[in-house]
Design goal:
The complex is a heterodimer of chains A (about 550) and B (about 180). By secondary structure, chain A is mostly helical. Chain A has helices at about 40-45, 70-80, 85-90, 105-110, 115-130, 135-140, 150-160, 165-170, 180-190, 195-210, 215-235, 255-260, 265-280, 300-315, 330-340, 370-380, 400-405, 410-420, 450-460, 460-475, 485-495, 505-510, 535-540; strands at about 250-255, 280-285, 320-325, 370, 395-400, 475-480, 500-505. Chain A folds into two domains: about 25-195, Fumarate Reductase Iron-sulfur Protein, Chain B, domain 2; about 200-510, no CATH class. The chains are: A mainly alpha (about 550), B mainly alpha (about 180).
């Protein structure tokens, strides 16, 4: 027998190679697990948006209006005139490639159309064809192409495969914000009824009842009271639950993810305990019961329609200023859109902490303060009695949520709070945190279960960094301050790092908070025995 | 007499490099250059996971380890996990392991002929087959995990509401007896 006589491994009859075609020639395949389901007609109808119907991305006929092409091109023209930034972003990209290797979907999946430059090129190629002289004359030679059905389907696949995290924009020497290109891409798709249900349903629910799951006021209060009961079990204290109270000083708005599901609920309990202990003059609202705003993933008009309730409720209740919970994209809306879309909120006062006298200058115009700004200020002034050793079982790292970090610059406040309430804290590697943070892979409405493979791909760069600190320092808790993160990172950790739990910051604040008149704490908010209390738990069990 | 093991040690770098390049061909052209050049493991996690798996497998093969249980292939965990969620068929996802055979034969052909080490090569290659089978188990576990995640996600998203609803339901169920 000779070496030449052996069958060669490469003779295995399997096509091992990826398609080596140019991106424009590579067809889009809708593989199960990598795209989101279309919006249910009722949810499109409720918002009075275009083309409600049953359809499926895997079928040939997407049931589009006959003149869909004209609708999109007219929509593109309108937006080029309306948004100067968008026109600039279409023109100034020199395809230098600085953004190319920054998207988590590209880094986890290797699909070149997830390189931000190519994602933007999907739209730019159509723009070039109709709006530039070179594109009109030279076509493909200068990267221009006609808008046909193949292109539209590609748009749907890839614009709903961008979490609008803006990591790419951080590296662009021209400051092109690819998330804004995705936003316009999605707006255009919405004009012909191409939306996903995981965005459109929360939008419709929120517009109708004020929160993503469409829970009516009595249901909300019921759920909040449930948390009050749980707190009483842990602390022996029945905390206040002020709801829709006129004349309160502060209106508190948080994402509904904080009270619909664990581990968000523990963060919600954290707020209740903190406010009770402080004796804060505040109120919850059953109308402005959602900080999240999935309009951000739909269209500018929808952002405005959903956001309007916050100022309206602040005015109705006569509060002085607004406090906001641990949410991610909510802060992009508040920080960058609310004031100009629904303001000026001149009926409110510049936020000032009633306990420290600190004036939140950064919120002078929006009148809305982030909870970690509020709490870090309290800690800085020694206003909280804290016992961080109660969190000694937690070895924490912190995931900067994309929107709070990159869009709102909230980098140090959360870290300051965490370090004050938890003795064990380790940062992930430098190029994966703060402004350079990696997305959870499920933002911008992509955190649904049908899209799970794409989420696991997109979340891989984040999980890779978590695994590093887990192996180096024994990290067992991934902290974040975003309701979407708390849901999506939980699944991500189950896949990539099953021994790492996910949680919010104010959960740890509440664990550490020594409350006046509390019973001796035996467990944390999750019902797990505190360090040194394991035996007592067992005794009780007996 | 020169042993296959010695040559594998000497040519380690070149063989793994060739093996990596063959695996990188499974990704589209525009992605390949990046995969090959960016060395920071946090900026290029696919490359890092591939190389961890490849280095791990190569070194253990050379050390003469046998692969009988999945635990003995732990170094493949991350790379299989990644490939289980990428745009690859099951055969493609696992297939990169077999590329080591191509890379090894290409690098060692001369020596194998000269030194008559065909038998050693076949033993080496059989071990690779063994690892591929174990990797297929790992791949299947990842896929099962994905389906499991889909189901638990649905439940978790509304856990509080369900818990609350169940408590109310339980109370209603109990109520007649208590009355």
């Amino acid at each position: 027998m000779s070496l030449e006589g052996l069958p060669k491994p490469e003779n295995l009859h399997i096509d091992f190679e990826a398609p080596q075609t140019d991106w424009m020639e590579t067809p889009t395949t809708f593989r199960s697990g990598t795209f989101s389901f279309p919006a249910a007609p009722k949810n499109i109808k409720y918002m009075g948006m275009a083309n409600p119907r049953e359809w499926s991305p895997t079928e040939e006929d997407w049931k589009l209006p006959d003149n869909w092409r004209q609708i999109i091109l007219d929509g593109l023209k309108e937006r080029l005139e309306k948004f100067r930034s968008f026109r600039l972003f279409m023109d100034i990209c020199v395809r230098c490639g600085a953004c190319a290797d920054k998207c988590h979907f590209f880094l986890g999946g290797g699909d070149p159309k997830n390189m931000p430059v190519l994602r933007a090129e999907l739209l730019r190629s159509v723009y070039r064809k109709d709006y530039t002289l070179a594109g009109k004359i030279l076509g493909r030679m200068v990267g221009a192409r006609d808008l046909d059905l193949k292109v539209l389907k590609e748009w749907f696949y890839y614009f709903y495969q961008c979490t609008e995290c803006r990591r790419c924009s951080l590296y662009c020497p021209y400051g092109i914000d690819t998330a804004e290109i995705t936003m316009i891409g999605r707006e255009l798709l919405n004009l012909v009824g191409l939306n996903i249900n995981w965005v459109q349903e929360p939008v419709a629910n929120c517009f109708r009842t004020g929160n993503h799951l469409g829970i009516p006021p009595h249901g909300l209060i019921d759920m909040w009271e449930f948390c009050v009961d749980d707190i009483e079990n842990v602390t022996g204290i029945r905390v206040d639950l002020p709801v829709n109270r006129k004349g309160a000083e502060i209106l508190m708005v948080t994402p509904s993810g904080d009270y619909f599901a664990d581990p968000g609920t523990y963060t919600f309990m954290g707020y209740l305990m903190l406010f009770h202990e402080l004796g804060l003059d505040y109120t919850w609202s059953t109308y402005a019961s959602e900080g999240g705003n999935f309009g951000l993933f739909t269209s500018h008009e929808t952002i405005k329609r959903l956001n309007a309730k916050i100022y309206a409720e602040a005015k109705r209740l006569g509060v002085k200023w607004i406090l906001g919970g641990e949410c991610g994209h909510m802060w992009r809306v508040i920080h960058q859109y609310m004031d100009t879309m629904n303001g000026p909120a001149d009926f409110l006062e510049v936020p000032k902490s009633p306990f420290t006298g600190t004036v939140f200058e950064n919120a002078r115009s929006s009148k809305m303060v982030h909870i970690t700004e509020f709490t870090s200020d309290l800690i800085k002034h020694g206003k909280l009695n804290l016992d961080p050793s109660r969190n000694d079982k937690v070895i924490a790292t912190y995931h900067d949520s994309c929107n709070t970090a990159r869009a709102a610059g909230l980098l140090d406040e959360p870290r300051y709070v965490i370090k004050a309430v938890c003795n064990n804290f380790y940062e992930m590697p430098e190029n994966t945190i703060r402004e350079e943070t990696f997305c959870c892979g499920g933002g911008a409405g992509l955190g649904n279960d049908e899209n799970i493979e794409m989420r696991m791909r997109g979340g891989f760069p984040r999980a890779n960094a978590v695994n590093y600190v887990r192996d180096e320092h024994g990290v067992n808790r991934l902290l974040c301050m975003c309701a979407i993160d708390r849901a999506t990172l939980t699944a991500l950790m189950h896949y990539w790092a099953p021994d790492v739990e996910v949680g919010g910051i104010h959960e740890l604040v509440a664990n550490a908070l020594i409350m006046k008149g509390e019973d001796e704490r035996k467990t944390d908010l999750r019902g797990e025995p505190l360090p040194g209390m394991e035996d007592m738990e067992e005794e009780e069990d007996v | 007499m020169v042993k296959l093991q010695d040559i594998l040690i000497t040519k380690r770098r070149a063989i793994i490099q060739d093996w990596f390049e063959r695996a990188a061909h499974q990704y589209p052209t525009d992605a390949r250059k990046f995969l090959a050049t960016e060395e920071n493991r946090f900026a290029n996690p696919i490359r890092a996971s591939l190389l961890d798996g490849m280095n791990g497998l190569y070194d253990r093969l050379v050390a003469g380890e046998t692969f009988e249980t999945q635990d003995s292939c732990e170094f493949l965990d991350t790379v299989i996990r990644v490939r289980a969620v990428q745009d690859l068929t099951a055969a493609q996802a696992i297939g990169f392991i077999f590329f080591l055979k191509d890379a090894a034969r290409a690098a060692l052909a001369g020596e194998i002929r000269r030194e008559g080490m065909l038998e050693e090569l076949l033993t080496f290659e059989s071990k690779i087959d063994n690892v591929a089978l174990l990797a297929f188990n790992m791949f299947m576990q990842c896929r099962e995990k994905i389906y499991d995640l889909k189901a638990t996600e649905l439940r978790n998203r509304t856990s509080r509401i369900l818990e609350r609803a169940c408590r109310i339901w339980d109370a209603q169920e109990r109520a007649p007896e208590e009355r």
